[in-house]
Specification:
The structure is a single chain. The chain is of the alpha/beta class. The chain has a domain of 188 residues: Rossmann fold. Helices cover 35% and strands 22% of the residues. The strands form three sheets. Strands 7-8-9-4-10-11-13 form a seven-stranded mixed beta sheet, with helices on both faces. Strand 10 and strand 11 form a beta hairpin. Helix 7 packs parallel to helix 8. The radius of gyration is 21 Å and the shape is globular. It is found in: Cell membrane. This is ABC transporter ATP-binding protein.
Length: 353
């Protein structure tokens, strides 16, 4: 039997506080093989003008969390519990009509692959103009002018002409810029970016990240940035939440999490990243094992089957007791604060350089 224990002195969040507040969110999918526990007891806040980076391996629940915020799930096979409050509005109980008024207007999303997210049958300009017309009541000409303006803002050369092109006529980087223009056309208050740079080369990736930061300063949007790459997160995020197997295992400011991480999973992510100043022949240090099946997640701490530090805790606690994340700067791990500090300083940091 698994019991739940808090591992930090600070209590978990208890009510809506941020511009976007997620409280004890659980998302389950019914499948032929059983119930997938995609998100389990997740809580976090995002403030206006700040960027929250959500990082973790594939299958950790990052994208499911943000699709749930937008209400983009199958209501017939999905069970959702908890609270999602956006600017005082509860989203889980919102009607489809209410969600449609928010999507693309006050909340927008940049998808990972714009080639599949954009229609091949309509010009780029029309696809950017359409949500602006829908949400503002602008005329066709006004909406088209706005689309051209936004293409210019995201750095598309000759935007008046390129707006007439179709997605397949754009390069990968230009398509991603067009997707950002579409997301920002209505000046959203919250922008969700789902691994928007994964398929891009390093140079274009850096351009997109700089573009997002510049546009955030201009529009003042809150951003939720999803990625599996801590290197990317370091460039864009004010705060970081690390997810594993449907739950948050560590949370804090970007500086706190990257300079003094407290969870063995975060240590593993950092340790598996290549370094520019390292020996090119040196092997990377991957996290042992594989992420668990969310049909039947491990008891106790979900990371314990892959954790090399559970013997430091003593007894069978990592297997039987599930550690919970506290508020603010915290990590869900049974190691004591002093143990975490000592292990990081003496064993982890020397490997990171």
């Amino acid at each position: 039997m698994t019991t739940l224990t808090k591992t930090e002195d600070t209590p978990p969040p208890t009510g809506p506080e941020g511009f976007l507040s997620v409280r004890d969110l659980s998302v389950r999918f019914a499948t032929e093989d059983g119930v997938v526990k995609a998100v389990d007891g997740l809580s976090f806040d995002v403030e206006r003008g700040r960027t929250l980076g959500i990082v973790g391996e594939s299958g950790s629940g990052k994208s499911v969390t943000n699709l749930t915020i937008l209400g983009l799930h199958n209501p017939h096979s999905t069970t959702i519990d908890g609270e999602i409050v956006f600017d005082g509005k509860e989203l889980i109980t919102a009607t489809e009509r209410e969600l449609e008024q928010l999507r693309g207007n006050r909340i927008a999303m940049i998808f990972q692959d714009p080639l599949t997210a954009m229609s091949p049958y309509y010009t780029v300009g029309r696809q950017i103009a359409e949500p602006f017309r829908k949400h503002t009541g602008a005329s066709k000409q006004e909406a088209w002018n706005r689309a051209v303006e936004m293409l210019g803002k995201v750095g598309i050369p000759n935007p008046a002409q390129r707006a007439k092109d179709y997605p397949h006529q754009f390069s990968g980087g230009m398509r991603q810029r067009a997707m950002i223009a579409m997301a920002l056309v209505c000046d959203p208050d919250l922008l969700i970016a789902d691994e928007p740079t994964t398929a891009l080369d390093v140079t274009v990736q850096a351009q997109i990240l700089d573009l997002l930061k510049d546009l955030q300063q201009e529009f003042g949007s809150a951003i939720v940035f999803i990625t599996h790459d801590l290197g990317v997160i370091a460039d864009v995020a004010d705060d970081i939440m690390v997810m594993y197997a449907g739950s948050a295992v560590e949370r804090g400011s970007t500086d706190q999490v990257l300079r003094a991480p407290r969870h063995p999973y975060t240590w593993g992510l950092l340790n598996s990243m290549p370094r520019l100043d390292s020996d090119l022949s040196a092997a990377l240090a991957p996290i042992p094992g594989t992420p668990p099946s969310l049909l039947n997640p491990p008891s106790g701490c979900r990371f314990h089957p892959r954790c090399t530090f559970q013997d430091r805790v003593g007894g069978n606690r990592c297997v039987t007791e599930r550690p919970l994340l506290g508020a603010d700067r915290s990590s869900a791990c049974h190691l004591t604060t002093e143990q975490k500090r000592s292990i990081f300083i003496e064993e982890i940091r020397p490997r990171l350089g």
